[in-house]
Request: fold
Amino acid sequence: MPELPEVQTIASDLDDVVGGKTIAAVAVSFDKIVASDLNRFHKLLTGATIDSVTRLGKWVCFSLSGTEGPVTMLAHLKMTGQFHLGAWPEGESDWPPHTRAAFRLKGLPAENDTLFYKDIRKFGRLRAFDLMELEEFLEHLGLGPDPFDMEPDDFYKRLTSKKGRLKSVLLNQQVVAGLGNIYVDECLFASGLLPTTSACKLSRPDTDRILTEARRILAASIKARGSTTSNYEGLKGGGSFQKSHNVYGRAGEPCPVCGSPIEKSVVGGRGTHHCPHCQRGRLKSGE
Ligand SMILES: [Zn+2]
Reply:
């Protein structure tokens, strides 16, 4: 599933290519992909101009000027969602494989005038809202701040007020937005902390270290256009940060710091990678 750096890359690519374009027509070939009201989805987006495409946690956020005011389309790509460009499908047989929704844009060459949402496993969701509906949805979502926007004090409070294990708490989007399986494993390795540590027992130096490492690793990954580990792809291609992973996807390989084999376990139902030698329950004071 794309995490913060991958969604950031996808959003930046989209902003470059479709920013400023007006949606002439909307078509949906798999209704369930639209999680807000389907008729309203068509009504809000048809004729709207895409002002910008940004990232909100792990959501791609299209900000549009609609015919009756500001409109937002949120896309959560889940396992296999992708955006790509192609020609507007004239009939059902013209739809590219696994595409679930199509947005025809004005001002692009005919062979590439349509933004397709493709999703092999169909777990992704698109939603369109006016301002008031967006506010309600975001309130319901309760998304925590980005690691880049988080104050160290707030991060410490958010982590230590939770009872779960550190890995699970960092994956909780209401605690901190944008982190997923890859970057939590990498961040905990870089911080020297075990994923199974109780979040409520962390010290202030522990949480400061996690936040510093999270920002450093996420920034480096954004620079490398994210990690291509499965289906992730931006309009301008994938990323290369997977080459810089120290533990994720490296079970049995030697730890780059101490040489011990990287272990894979399951924490909170998620495959988890760590070095049994370099990672501990808590940092010693002064580290
Ligand atoms: Zn090690």
